[in-house]
Design goal:
alpha/beta, seven-stranded mixed β-sheet, 8 helices, 42% helix, 20% strand, binds S-adenosylmethionine
Length: 220
Amino acid sequence: MANKTLGIEPSLYNYLLSVSLREPEILSQLRAETAQHPMAVMQIAPEQGQFMALLVQLIGAKKTLDIGVFTGYSSLVVSLALPADGRVVACDVSAEFTSIARRYWQKAGVADKIDLHIAPAMETLDQLLAAGAAETFDFAFIDADKSNYDGYYERSLQLVRPGGLILIDNVLWSGSVADPQIQDNRTTNIRALNEKLHQDQRINLSLLPIADGLTLAHKK
Ligand SMILES: C[S@@+](CC[C@H](N)C(=O)[O-])C[C@H]1O[C@@H](n2cnc3c(N)ncnc32)[C@H](O)[C@@H]1O
Protein backbone atom coordinates (compact mmCIF):
# COMPACT_ATOMS: atom_id res chain seq x y z
CA MET A 1 0.00 0.00 0.00
CA ALA A 2 1.20 3.58 -0.71
CA ASN A 3 2.96 4.91 2.34
CA LYS A 4 1.18 7.97 3.68
CA THR A 5 3.11 8.22 6.94
CA LEU A 6 6.05 10.58 6.53
CA GLY A 7 9.57 9.28 7.09
CA ILE A 8 8.74 5.60 7.52
CA GLU A 9 10.13 2.95 5.17
CA PRO A 10 7.53 1.17 3.00
CA SER A 11 8.45 -2.22 4.44
CA LEU A 12 8.03 -0.98 8.01
CA TYR A 13 4.78 0.78 7.07
CA ASN A 14 3.42 -2.45 5.59
CA TYR A 15 4.48 -4.30 8.73
CA LEU A 16 2.70 -1.73 10.89
CA LEU A 17 -0.48 -2.25 8.87
CA SER A 18 -0.11 -6.02 8.85
CA VAL A 19 -0.08 -6.22 12.66
CA SER A 20 -2.53 -3.44 13.52
CA LEU A 21 -4.99 -2.48 10.81
CA ARG A 22 -8.52 -3.76 11.45
CA GLU A 23 -10.29 -2.06 8.58
CA PRO A 24 -13.94 -3.00 8.15
CA GLU A 25 -14.75 -4.32 4.65
CA ILE A 26 -16.89 -1.27 3.81
CA LEU A 27 -13.93 1.06 4.46
CA SER A 28 -11.61 -1.16 2.38
CA GLN A 29 -14.13 -0.94 -0.46
CA LEU A 30 -14.30 2.85 -0.16
CA ARG A 31 -10.50 3.06 -0.16
CA ALA A 32 -10.27 0.83 -3.25
CA GLU A 33 -12.83 2.94 -5.12
CA THR A 34 -11.21 6.23 -4.06
CA ALA A 35 -7.80 4.95 -5.23
CA GLN A 36 -9.15 5.28 -8.79
CA HIS A 37 -10.13 8.93 -8.22
CA PRO A 38 -7.83 11.66 -9.60
CA MET A 39 -7.81 13.34 -6.17
CA ALA A 40 -7.22 10.09 -4.25
CA VAL A 41 -4.29 11.61 -2.37
CA MET A 42 -6.81 13.68 -0.33
CA GLN A 43 -8.13 10.61 1.48
CA ILE A 44 -6.89 9.99 5.01
CA ALA A 45 -4.70 6.95 5.70
CA PRO A 46 -6.45 3.84 7.08
CA GLU A 47 -4.31 3.68 10.24
CA GLN A 48 -5.22 7.32 10.89
CA GLY A 49 -8.89 6.48 10.48
CA GLN A 50 -8.55 3.62 12.96
CA PHE A 51 -6.81 5.95 15.41
CA MET A 52 -9.59 8.52 15.04
CA ALA A 53 -12.21 5.84 15.72
CA LEU A 54 -10.31 4.85 18.87
CA LEU A 55 -10.24 8.48 20.07
CA VAL A 56 -13.97 8.87 19.42
CA GLN A 57 -14.61 5.79 21.56
CA LEU A 58 -12.12 6.82 24.27
CA ILE A 59 -13.84 10.17 24.85
CA GLY A 60 -17.33 8.67 24.49
CA ALA A 61 -18.17 11.07 21.67
CA LYS A 62 -21.73 11.34 20.41
CA LYS A 63 -21.81 14.56 18.43
CA THR A 64 -19.02 15.19 15.93
CA LEU A 65 -17.94 17.50 13.13
CA ASP A 66 -16.28 16.38 9.87
CA ILE A 67 -14.87 19.43 8.07
CA GLY A 68 -13.84 18.23 4.60
CA VAL A 69 -15.67 15.05 3.53
CA PHE A 70 -14.33 14.16 0.05
CA THR A 71 -15.43 10.54 -0.63
CA GLY A 72 -16.30 10.00 3.02
CA TYR A 73 -13.57 7.96 4.70
CA SER A 74 -13.24 10.11 7.85
CA SER A 75 -16.99 10.57 8.28
CA LEU A 76 -17.62 6.86 7.74
CA VAL A 77 -14.90 5.65 10.11
CA VAL A 78 -16.13 8.07 12.81
CA SER A 79 -19.82 7.24 12.31
CA LEU A 80 -19.07 3.51 12.63
CA ALA A 81 -17.35 4.22 15.98
CA LEU A 82 -20.27 6.27 17.35
CA PRO A 83 -23.15 4.83 19.36
CA ALA A 84 -26.51 4.38 17.60
CA ASP A 85 -27.63 7.87 18.64
CA GLY A 86 -24.33 9.47 17.57
CA ARG A 87 -24.25 12.19 14.93
CA VAL A 88 -21.78 13.60 12.40
CA VAL A 89 -22.27 17.10 10.98
CA ALA A 90 -20.35 16.85 7.71
CA CYS A 91 -19.19 19.88 5.70
CA ASP A 92 -18.04 20.01 2.10
CA VAL A 93 -18.53 22.20 -0.98
CA SER A 94 -18.55 19.34 -3.48
CA ALA A 95 -21.80 17.53 -4.31
CA GLU A 96 -19.76 15.40 -6.72
CA PHE A 97 -17.17 14.10 -4.22
CA THR A 98 -19.79 13.60 -1.52
CA SER A 99 -22.11 11.63 -3.82
CA ILE A 100 -19.56 8.81 -3.38
CA ALA A 101 -19.59 9.37 0.40
CA ARG A 102 -23.41 9.21 0.49
CA ARG A 103 -23.39 5.91 -1.37
CA TYR A 104 -21.03 4.38 1.21
CA TRP A 105 -22.93 5.84 4.19
CA GLN A 106 -26.07 4.15 2.83
CA LYS A 107 -24.27 0.87 2.24
CA ALA A 108 -22.80 0.92 5.76
CA GLY A 109 -26.19 1.73 7.34
CA VAL A 110 -24.96 4.99 8.90
CA ALA A 111 -26.62 7.52 6.58
CA ASP A 112 -29.10 8.46 9.33
CA LYS A 113 -26.22 9.48 11.60
CA ILE A 114 -24.72 11.94 9.09
CA ASP A 115 -26.03 15.40 8.34
CA LEU A 116 -24.22 16.67 5.21
CA HIS A 117 -24.06 20.42 4.53
CA ILE A 118 -22.99 21.32 0.99
CA ALA A 119 -21.69 24.85 1.59
CA PRO A 120 -18.44 26.55 2.56
CA ALA A 121 -17.64 25.03 5.95
CA MET A 122 -17.14 28.46 7.51
CA GLU A 123 -20.79 29.27 6.77
CA THR A 124 -22.01 25.97 8.22
CA LEU A 125 -19.95 26.42 11.39
CA ASP A 126 -21.19 30.01 11.79
CA GLN A 127 -24.78 28.79 11.37
CA LEU A 128 -24.26 26.16 14.06
CA LEU A 129 -22.90 28.81 16.42
CA ALA A 130 -25.77 31.19 15.60
CA ALA A 131 -28.21 28.36 16.33
CA GLY A 132 -26.79 27.97 19.85
CA ALA A 133 -24.65 24.85 19.29
CA ALA A 134 -21.60 26.17 21.16
CA GLU A 135 -20.04 23.53 23.45
CA THR A 136 -22.44 20.81 22.23
CA PHE A 137 -19.93 18.83 20.14
CA ASP A 138 -17.51 16.23 21.50
CA PHE A 139 -15.16 15.87 18.56
CA ALA A 140 -14.16 17.73 15.39
CA PHE A 141 -11.94 16.70 12.49
CA ILE A 142 -10.52 19.54 10.37
CA ASP A 143 -9.46 18.43 6.88
CA ALA A 144 -10.84 20.96 4.36
CA ASP A 145 -9.08 23.84 2.54
CA LYS A 146 -5.88 24.84 4.32
CA SER A 147 -6.43 28.58 3.77
CA ASN A 148 -9.29 28.52 6.29
CA TYR A 149 -7.69 26.24 8.88
CA ASP A 150 -7.41 28.92 11.54
CA GLY A 151 -11.08 29.88 11.09
CA TYR A 152 -12.13 26.23 11.32
CA TYR A 153 -10.04 25.78 14.45
CA GLU A 154 -11.48 28.86 16.20
CA ARG A 155 -15.06 27.86 15.38
CA SER A 156 -14.47 24.23 16.35
CA LEU A 157 -13.01 25.39 19.64
CA GLN A 158 -16.27 27.21 20.36
CA LEU A 159 -18.40 24.28 19.20
CA VAL A 160 -16.71 21.52 21.24
CA ARG A 161 -17.36 21.11 24.94
CA PRO A 162 -14.60 21.37 27.54
CA GLY A 163 -12.88 17.95 27.38
CA GLY A 164 -13.76 17.67 23.70
CA LEU A 165 -11.20 16.92 21.05
CA ILE A 166 -10.26 18.71 17.82
CA LEU A 167 -8.10 16.89 15.27
CA ILE A 168 -6.31 18.85 12.56
CA ASP A 169 -4.98 17.01 9.53
CA ASN A 170 -1.93 17.61 7.29
CA VAL A 171 -0.10 19.73 9.86
CA LEU A 172 3.30 18.53 8.54
CA TRP A 173 2.21 19.21 4.92
CA SER A 174 4.60 16.67 3.35
CA GLY A 175 7.47 18.27 5.28
CA SER A 176 7.04 21.71 3.65
CA VAL A 177 6.39 23.40 7.02
CA ALA A 178 9.99 22.67 8.06
CA ASP A 179 11.51 24.18 4.91
CA PRO A 180 11.86 27.98 5.28
CA GLN A 181 12.30 28.31 1.49
CA ILE A 182 8.66 27.24 1.00
CA GLN A 183 6.41 30.26 1.44
CA ASP A 184 3.19 29.50 -0.48
CA ASN A 185 -0.11 30.37 1.21
CA ARG A 186 -1.12 26.91 2.29
CA THR A 187 2.27 26.15 3.84
CA THR A 188 2.45 29.50 5.67
CA ASN A 189 -1.13 29.07 6.95
CA ILE A 190 -0.41 25.64 8.38
CA ARG A 191 2.91 26.83 9.82
CA ALA A 192 1.21 29.83 11.49
CA LEU A 193 -1.51 27.63 12.98
CA ASN A 194 1.07 25.14 14.31
CA GLU A 195 2.96 28.00 15.98
CA LYS A 196 -0.25 29.47 17.40
CA LEU A 197 -1.37 26.12 18.84
CA HIS A 198 2.01 25.64 20.49
CA GLN A 199 1.25 28.72 22.63
CA ASP A 200 -2.53 28.26 22.94
CA GLN A 201 -3.37 27.78 26.62
CA ARG A 202 -7.03 26.98 25.85
CA ILE A 203 -5.99 23.44 24.84
CA ASN A 204 -3.78 20.50 25.72
CA LEU A 205 -1.68 19.69 22.66
CA SER A 206 -0.03 16.84 20.84
CA LEU A 207 1.26 16.73 17.25
CA LEU A 208 1.65 13.19 15.96
CA PRO A 209 3.74 12.19 12.92
CA ILE A 210 0.98 9.90 11.69
CA ALA A 211 0.27 10.10 7.93
CA ASP A 212 0.80 13.78 6.95
CA GLY A 213 0.84 14.98 10.59
CA LEU A 214 -2.15 15.04 12.92
CA THR A 215 -2.62 17.56 15.72
CA LEU A 216 -4.73 16.71 18.75
CA ALA A 217 -6.13 19.75 20.52
CA HIS A 218 -7.96 18.85 23.73
CA LYS A 219 -10.15 21.69 24.95
CA LYS A 220 -9.53 22.56 28.60
C1 LIG B 1 -8.54 16.48 2.04
S1 LIG B 1 -10.18 16.38 1.45
C2 LIG B 1 -11.03 15.62 2.81
C3 LIG B 1 -10.68 14.16 2.98
C4 LIG B 1 -11.62 13.40 3.88
N1 LIG B 1 -11.55 13.89 5.25
C5 LIG B 1 -11.38 11.91 3.84
O1 LIG B 1 -11.31 11.28 4.91
O2 LIG B 1 -11.26 11.34 2.75
C6 LIG B 1 -10.70 18.07 1.52
C7 LIG B 1 -12.18 18.31 1.18
O3 LIG B 1 -12.47 19.67 1.55
C8 LIG B 1 -13.43 20.16 0.66
N2 LIG B 1 -13.40 21.64 0.71
C9 LIG B 1 -12.58 22.49 0.07
N3 LIG B 1 -12.88 23.76 0.38
C10 LIG B 1 -13.92 23.71 1.24
C11 LIG B 1 -14.68 24.70 1.92
N4 LIG B 1 -14.43 26.00 1.80
N5 LIG B 1 -15.68 24.27 2.73
C12 LIG B 1 -15.93 22.95 2.89
N6 LIG B 1 -15.25 21.98 2.26
C13 LIG B 1 -14.25 22.36 1.46
C14 LIG B 1 -13.05 19.57 -0.69
O4 LIG B 1 -14.18 19.55 -1.55
C15 LIG B 1 -12.55 18.18 -0.29
O5 LIG B 1 -13.57 17.23 -0.42
